[in-house]
Design a protein that fits this description.
0% strand; 218 residues
Length: 218
Amino acid sequence: MSLAERISVDGVSDGQLLSTASVLVPELASSEKRQSEPAHREVYKTARISFPQLILAFLFSPGGWISLSVLFSIGLRLSLGPMGWIDAVLFSGIVVLWPFFEWFFHRFLLHEWTFLPFHFTHDRHHKTPTSATGLPDAWIITFYFAMTAFLWYFGFKYLSSVNVAVLTMLTIYEFVHFSCHCNYKPLTKWGWAIRVNHLQHHRFDESKFYSMLFPITR
């Protein structure tokens, strides 16, 4: 059993979840509440982990390969030439647009467009919502590396910069998602808002709460 699998998924009780949700994120109306798949039922109970332990667990999971894909993309981009103000603008644009991207991809690629392979891997995560099943499969991570190599090979300098930004935000997204399914206690109100928002997505209504890093909208 991997380190990631040995970390408990459920760090808060149902009562704590609901009381925190009423303060940090929009509460579900009573008519909207429903129990989703048996979320957080099959979990591994261990002591609560610290932030350094969380990082270590992520790096020793498939998340480590996601992190390497970022370093790989940065290295190949720098080999095409130094970064300038255009690269900074492109990176900033991705960050600004990221709330829309994460909502769109989570809703459509992972949920509504059931014909895509992304849906099947995400459906497995909802049926067994652990940190391990929530991480991308090997073929997805391979695609990250292949796309980076493709852009570098054909010398697409600015598209490579966009790729660096996207992979960076994806890594942060996956790390935060990983933390939501570990027995980790967030240290900030924003961290609690993210955790509560995502656990409501699993526990009460899978057709809402698609946002992750910016839990502002349903």
